[in-house]
């Protein structure tokens, strides 16, 4: 709408200027013709008077008559003449010509002041411009207020569209508009959004349902394997195969668990928010990990971070970050965890930067083909961060000369607190 | 002990019953809400394994009914739904434990025994296996009445072994029992190996050699 106003403004200025210039030249031409016509008729009048009175001298400097020997044609020129009455030099339009009256050649010169006509001209142009300018301002504001009224439903609907969330339970409602185009636009958007909303809900429900429905068959498989291992006489190879089946089942179980967790975060089912200390959670997580891995985990706490969130989600967040670090660490290098400012940083060693670092927080993004990774850990981290407005980030620091060998994968969560 | 297994999936029901009855327990089964409800009214059980989603009704309703009758009966809920709300609801209604599908039968067995041990269902705080005695309240172990020092994990391991005696336990099952969900972090099961080895050494020193290797990578706790 602002653009439309701007176009309107520019066009008006151009048209105004052009028509102003055109009018100026047209009027100037008109006045000049008028002056010249007047000069010719004045000359005729002087010549007519000369016929009756040969000694007429005229009214200098406007009209003059003198005897001459050389006849010449009429000449129209501009000339500057000092006017003693006004004590200044003025511009005159001059017509001079000769005329044979009663056998004697007379030179008749008539002049008219041009300045006055120029004044008239500029006044006319000025008036013209004033009128157009006022009309323009009036139209501009009229247009603007009209537009504002016309576009009001559009803008209020745009606001609603901006605030629209897929997760919202209520469908998008629009302000009605009498304008056909807006009405149709609203109708189409309404259909589109409600379709998207339904699809989204179905998809979410589907993930949840599948995850839940899968648990029972998995339980049966698990139980049957347990039974076979204990009952039947099997050999070592078969036992190995059953064991590996068991670990596959447990991978599926983990996958399910994580998908359900993701769905639950999306469904806003974590409402037990309380003030917790990230430091404590990290310390507990490290304690747990020490039972499971021989990798040295070092914690540097520069300050404490207290934050309001669901404690179980905080645990999941730290767990997933740390387990990612443990999983992808190289050669049992030390894992370094730092808490500083509003940030939690987890650093593990690695050979090279990821192929697609921007996708590291995506679902099922797997850089390494490690069998035991579900590819969901970091996407849960991201989901939790999104939910609470934290800022997760990843970067890779290549190995320096001081620290030869590996580079470092650095994962960082900025808890985005105003300190 | 007498158990009722209320589970609508026949296969799962049979597997559970088979696993549990090998300890000389009596296992009865119910495949739907009505059958379970009927059996609970007619007979006395020490423990009910209750699936929440029974085909013809909710296990939670059954649980409410059961608690109204003030029967001295332990209840373990099994459910495909791992959500916390569901779990809390079950426990609030008086269930003694809650286990999410899929689970290992050894894990279920260990939960059952824990529930029974909590006294009021006729169990007691002492578990004996030959010369080994475990005091589950003090979490301490004795061989021939001589106390042996065990770490927390070693104690848990020994308890798990004794409860699931005679069964083959793979490292994955043991890992899941000891570390729960975190067990998927284990790159390999070296850690379990360390714990089992330590426990084995401590027991062997006292002359109790019951931990046997089965099929190369599994374990079995058995009296020779």
From TrEMBL, chain A:
Its EC number is 2.7.13.3. InterPro entries: HATPase_C_sf, HATPase_dom, His_kinase_dom, HisK_dim/P_dom, HisK_dim/P_sf, TCS_sensor_his_kinase. It comes from the Bacteria. It holds the Pfam family HisKA. GO terms for molecular function: phosphorelay sensor kinase activity. The chain crosses the membrane at residues 7-27, 120-142. Residues 209-419 form the Histidine kinase domain. One of its GO terms (cellular component) is plasma membrane. It catalyses: ATP + protein L-histidine = ADP + protein N-phospho-L-histidine. Keywords: Kinase, Membrane, Phosphoprotein, Transferase, Transmembrane, Transmembrane helix. PANTHER family: SENSOR HISTIDINE KINASE TRCS, SENSOR HISTIDINE KINASE YKOH. This is histidine kinase. It comes from Galbibacter orientalis DSM 19592.
UniProtKB/TrEMBL annotation, chain B:
Residues 2-116 form the Response regulatory domain. Keywords: DNA-binding, Phosphoprotein, Transcription, Transcription regulation, Two-component regulatory system. It comes from the Bacteria. Residues 124-223 form the OmpR/PhoB-type domain. Residues 124-223 bind DNA. The modification 4-aspartylphosphate is found at residue 51. One of its GO terms (molecular function) is phosphorelay response regulator activity. SMART domains: REC, Trans_reg_C. PROSITE patterns: OMPR_PHOB, RESPONSE_REGULATORY. InterPro entries: CheY-like_superfamily, OmpR/PhoB-type_DNA-bd, Sig_transdc_resp-reg_receiver, WalR-like, WH-like_DNA-bd_sf. GO terms for biological process: regulation of DNA-templated transcription. One of its GO terms (cellular component) is cytosol. This is Response regulator with CheY-like receiver domain and winged-helix DNA-binding domain. It comes from Galbibacter orientalis DSM 19592.
